[in-house]
Design brief:
There is one protein chain. The chain is mainly alpha-helical. It is 70% helix and 0% strand. It contains 10 helices and no strands.
């Protein structure tokens, strides 16, 4: 069997296993939807959000937080879920057993990446559906906005998946994986404009967030879903989609190189 055929077969197995794990489904699949509901319910009474006191552009609270939740969903499905998952597979001997099969590391990566794509697309569709039909969020009507969403989603998903595989080398056991990975992901969400409005963060925190992919992923999502007037709230007063693409590709390459250099079927200290 070819590398791709084995990878796709592994992807089917991975996807089925994902939805058979209730805690994983809740904390990485449903979590952004739950958070969107909480923010919408908590702050809708304050009225619409505007980029400035005299701006004609305005969106509901749900519409404002939607791009951030889409970005967070990509990060959770890729970085957090894969890092914890693979660390567990190393600890319980799954990777050691797979190393004795015809499955190559590339096929294994393909399986993980396809699973993240499958669950990510389903998650994004569900999140958009809930936003539109439950919270009354007006979605974009321009094809250009959906085109921006598509390429940001694809680049962000691939980068997050590869970074998740790379990060899985850091925890020394399945028990420590959550303690190592979740704080990293949580901090990034708070400093990257997911839970807090990016423009109100101090300059040093904005600069710090700009070194990591989630800030650019969230900015790209905001470019797709928010009115053009909201670009004034970004760090440099624009959507900077060229920089969004450049940073996501850069982190994609970093994830690919590190994951390939550090991935082992058996831990070196085992």
């Amino acid at each position: 069997m070819s590398t791709m055929t084995l990878g796709l077969a592994r992807a089917r197995y991975e996807t089925k296993g994902y939805f058979r794990s209730p805690d994983t489904v809740f904390f990485t699949f449903l979590f952004p939807i739950v958070m969107l509901g909480i923010f919408t319910a908590a702050f809708s009474s304050l009225g619409d959000i505007r980029p400035g006191p005299t701006s004609a552009d305005h969106v509901s609270v749900g519409a404002y937080y939607l791009p951030g939740m889409l970005a967070a969903g990509v990060l959770l499905s890729g970085v957090q879920n894969l890092a914890v998952d693979i660390a567990g597979e190393k600890s319980d001997g799954t990777l050691k057993r797979l190393g004795g099969t015809p499955l190559s590391p590339v096929s294994y990566f393909v399986g993980k990446l396809c699973r993240v794509f499958a669950t990510g697309i389903l998650q994004a569709a569900l999140l958009l559906g809930v936003a539109r039909f439950v919270f009354g969020v007006a979605l974009p009507t321009e094809w250009s906005a959906w085109g921006t969403f598509a390429w940001v989603f694809v680049l962000g998903t691939v980068a997050s998946a590869l970074l998740g595989i790379a990060l899985s080398a850091l925890p020394r056991s399945s028990r420590s994986a959550t303690a190592v990975v979740v704080p990293i992901v949580l901090v990034l969400q708070f400093i990257s404009g997911v839970y807090l409005q990016f423009s109100v963060l101090p300059a040093w925190m904005q600069n710090l967030a700009s070194a990591f992919p989630l800030k650019w992923l969230a900015q790209g999502m905001r470019a797709a879903f928010l009115p053009d007037g909201f670009k004034a709230l970004e760090q440099h007063g624009g959507w900077e989609l060229g920089w969004v693409a450049l940073w996501l590709v850069a982190w994609l390459i970093v994830g690919l190189v590190v994951s390939r250099l550090t991935f082992r079927w058996i831990r070196r200290d085992a």
